[in-house]
Design goal:
This protein is an alpha+beta fold. It has one domain. The chain contains six helices and 17 strands.
Length: 409
C-alpha cells in the first residue's frame, strides 16, 4: 500500500515517491505477462519534469523530481532497480519568458506570430505592446545576448533551433521540454550503461556527502566516485551572482536581480528548522498570507502555518577542487542568525531556471538549455539535484537518500 500520510514523509512509501515505483512495477508486469517476451525487470527510463511547465506542482517541482526517483535522489536504487533517469531540470524552454508574467514577456526576440507579444516590449499590467526589440534575424544587435560558444558541446549544435522558435513548435504548451534531442541523448546514455554493457556512468554526478569548515568558510561537496566510473565532474559555465540593477535601468531585465532562487548552488542560513524544509506551500486555502512547510526534511510531522519563513537562501560561488569534489565559498553569507544549515543544487522553490543571463541588463536572448553548468566531463550528464541539511559540519539528506560521506568511493 502507498501511504499518503505526512507521517511517512521521510520514507520512499510516501505520495508520488510511492506511486512512481508502483507505476514502474505495474508497466513491467504488463510487459512481461506473456512468458518469454519482456524481462520482468526490463530497463526503464524516467524523464524528470522540466521547469518550463509546472504540471500543477509550482513551488513543489523540485520535491516532485526527487519523488520521481522514489525519493532516493538518483536512479537506479533499491526501490526502482534497473532504471535510469534523464534529468530535465536544466532544459528550460528556450522561450520560457512568453509564459511568465507580463514583465517577462519582453525576453522574446523572435518574429513568431504564433506567440503572443513576440518581439515586443510590454507595459507591465496593461499588456500594451511597445516597439519591437529589434534584435534582427541574425541576433546581431548589441542589445541581444547570443553566444552559443558558451554552451556545452552536447547542446551547441542546437543553437539554430533555439534561435528559431518557429522551427521548434510546442506541444501542449511548455509542459514538456521543447528540445527533445538532449532528453533522448540522456535516455540513450542511461540505457546503454544499464542494458548494453556501456562503460560510462549511468547517471550524472550524485552527492555522497559534504564537509563544512566554518573557519575557512568552505563547503566541500563530494560526489560518488563509484557512480562516476572513469568520468569526472566539471564546471561548464560560470555562476556569478547577478547584482541588483538600478531602478530605472534600460532595457528592463527579464527578471529582477539579484537572482534570489534558481537551479544554481545555494546555501541556507537563518532558521535551522526552516532551512530543512524541502517544499514550501505559499498562502494555502484558509491561511492567506501564511507559509506551510509541506515536506519537512528533519521531521515526520507537518508544522502549523507560519507568518514568515526564516530560511535565507543565497547563491554562492563554486570552484572545482578535483574530479569528484566541488568547493563552495560561504564567506559572503550572513551567518549572524545561526550559521550554515543547508545546501541545494537544482532544487528551486520557484521557477527553477538555470538562465541567470536573463537577469542581466541585456537579457534579450533565449534561455540556454543545459546551462546549470555542473555535469560529468565525458557524458555531459547534469548533477542529480540534491537538498542536504548541514548538521555538525556534514551533509544529511532526507531519507531514504543517504549523503553522509559513507559512500564516496
Amino acid at each position: 500500500m502507498c501511504s499518503l500520510a505526512f507521517a511517512s514523509t521521510n520514507t520512499h512509501d510516501h505520495r508520488y515517491g510511492c506511486m512512481m515505483k508502483r507505476m514502474v512495477a505495474t508497466w513491467r508486469s504488463y510487459w512481461s505477462a506473456v512468458p518469454n517476451t519482456t524481462r520482468p525487470l526490463a530497463p526503464f527510463g524516467v524523464v524528470t519534469i522540466a521547469p518550463s511547465g509546472s504540471e500543477g506542482a509550482d513551488w513543489h517541482m523540485s520535491a516532485f523530481r526527487w519523488a520521481q526517483t522514489a525519493n532516493y535522489g538518483l536512479l537506479p536504487n533499491v526501490a526502482m532497480p534497473n532504471t535510469f533517469v534523464a534529468q530535465a531540470y536544466d532544459l528550460n524552454d528556450p522561450w520560457a519568458g512568453v509564459n511568465d508574467d507580463p514583465f517577462a514577456k519582453q525576453s522574446v526576440c523572435s518574429n513568431n506570430s504564433s506567440i503572443p507579444y513576440s518581439c515586443t516590449w510590454t507595459n507591465k499590467g496593461t499588456m500594451t505592446p511597445l516597439p519591437c526589440c529589434e534584435c534582427g534575424p541574425d541576433m546581431a544587435s548589441p542589445m541581444c545576448v547570443w553566444d552559443p560558444s558558451q554552451w556545452n558541446r552536447a547542446l551547441s549544435p542546437l543553437a539554430p533551433l533555439v534561435r528559431n522558435s518557429t522551427a521548434t513548435p510546442q506541444f501542449m504548451g511548455s509542459l514538456h521540454p521543447r528540445l527533445k534531442y538532449p532528453v533522448g541523448r540522456r535516455l540513450a546514455l542511461g540505457l546503454v550503461a544499464t542494458a548494453y554493457g556501456g562503460s560510462n556512468t549511468v547517471t550524472g554526478p550524485t552527492i555522497s556527502g559534504c564537509t563544512f569548515d566554518n573557519a575557512s568558510h568552505t563547503i566541500l561537496i563530494h560526489f560518488n566516485k563509484t557512480l562516476l566510473k572513469s568520468d569526472a565532474v566539471v564546471i561548464t559555465r560560470t555562476q556569478t551572482p547577478i547584482p541588483p540593477l538600478p531602478p530605472n535601468s534600460t532595457p528592463k531585465p527579464t527578471r529582477p536581480g539579484p537572482v534570489q532562487d534558481s537551479s544554481l548552488m545555494h546555501v541556507c542560513t537563518g532558521n535551522a528548522t526552516d532551512c530543512s524544509c524541502l517544499s514550501w506551500l505559499a498562502a494555502p486555502r484558509g491561511s492567506s498570507g501564511l507559509w506551510v512547510c509541506e515536506i519537512p526534511a528533519e521531521s515526520a510531522l507537518p508544522r502549523p502555518p507560519q507568518a514568515t519563513r526564516g530560511d535565507i537562501w543565497a547563491e554562492v560561488p563554486i570552484t572545482l577542487v578535483d574530479g569528484a569534489t566541488i568547493g563552495i565559498d560561504t564567506i559572503s553569507l550572513n551567518v549572524s542568525t545561526g550559521g550554515v544549515h543547508a545546501v541545494k543544487f537544482g532544487w528551486s522553490f520557484s521557477a527553477g531556471t538555470c538562465c541567470i543571463d536573463l537577469a542581466s541588463n541585456t537579457g534579450l536572448a533565449p534561455c540556454i538549455p543545459g546551462s546549470c553548468g555542473v555535469m560529468t566531463r565525458d557524458s555531459l550528464l547534469p548533477v542529480n539535484p540534491f537538498f542536504a541539511s548541514v548538521v555538525n559540519g556534514k551533509c544529511k539528506c532526507p531519507a531514504p537518500q543517504v549523503c553522509d560521506e559513507t559512500n564516496t568511493q
